[in-house]
Amino acid sequence: MPRARKAxxxxxxxxxxxxxxxxxxxxxxxxxxxxxxxxxxxxxPAAAASLETDTVTERDLRVPWRxxxxxxxxxxxxxxxxxxxxxxxxxxxxxIDEPRLVAVARHLASIGHPVLTTELADLKAYExxxxxxxxxxxxxxxxAGHSGLAPRGRVGLMGISFAGGLAIVASARPSVADxxxxxxxxxxxxxxxxxxxxxxxxxxPGADVPPPHDYGVAIILLGAADQAVPEDQVEPLRTAILTxxxxxxxxxxxxxxxxxxFARARKMAADLPEPARTLMGYVNDRxxxxxxxxxxxHIEAMDADPAHSPSMxxxxxxxxxxxxxxxxxxxxxxxxxxxxxxxxxxxxxxxLLTTPLVTHAEVxxxxxxxxxxxxxxxxxxxxxxx
Length: 386
What we know:
The protein is an alpha/beta fold. The protein folds into two domains: about 50-190 and about 310-385, Alpha/Beta hydrolase fold, catalytic domain (Rossmann fold), CATH 3.40.50.1820; about 195-300, no CATH class. About 50% of the residues lie in helices and about 15% in strands. The protein is built from 14 helices and eight strands. It has helices at about 5-40, 45-50, 100-110, 120-125, 130-145, 160-170, 190-200, 215-230, 230-250, 255-270, 275-285, 290-300, 335-345, 370-385; strands at about 55-65, 70-75, 85-90, 115-120, 155-160, 180-185, 320-325, 350-355. It is globular. The two termini are about 45 Å apart.
């Protein structure tokens, strides 16, 4: 064979090998791009990542469910090769407009994974209810059955914070169990009563957990107000708690308005009769040590509803991905660790990563190379499912 032809053939083989290697690693390339964007690394990594992304378009939709309709938003860069992902927000008043949720949806869509975010009315109102699980189930079934959005009739499912645990429960239900590529819980719970007890006491059996965030007891008191105070004090107390929670939300985006809302919550507390005044004072003072024991009997009296907790529900047939911040003090990482053990014992395929890069359902810690690689491998495996 002539030397020039041998050289050309050799070059071709190298290019072919490179293409095969790139194809095999393509999901990890896109996972790396997603992690760079989600971690807001900036600089050269962000510039390189931008070469792998496309412009995302957004449009608002309304998703039907058995109780009516759900506000939703569709994100896409026009690439329909991958299964769309239903992404549901956690307990947050901003719902599908929550900035971190919007950023995750845009980043995923920019690398070719279309996303539908769907609002859950109860979680938006700081209530964790069984019908939220119904909403997730119905939204996933609707998306999988929409030929224009999910041409292959299959979808991925992601839930953030408390919606993560609810998403895993929904994923095992018959209407969607065989239509999911994967289900992911990002900072979610395995057992709701156990998580609420942690928020009230700072303790979790068999686990070393950080002191709980005060946000949790405020939400528990909001739900238990009708049991904690006389009937005529329930609504004034709930209004004051919602003001405090709104101030906490604004603290991330508008600190001057946040300070004004915190001051208003304190004024409301001063105007309340006892015992609501004392309870709201604990909320304003972020006094988990005093408020937690008062709420504990109400938590213990809660029904252990399987619609709330994946540890009590059937195991999903789809692969389960659990991502958790190692130092999460809203839902501790032990929730994902214990849930992984439970689901594996029931035959589920589970991928678990606890990482110091994440706080509560948010990548916002200074990265080390090893932690970044772990996160890329996790997301690469997940994205490869769809």
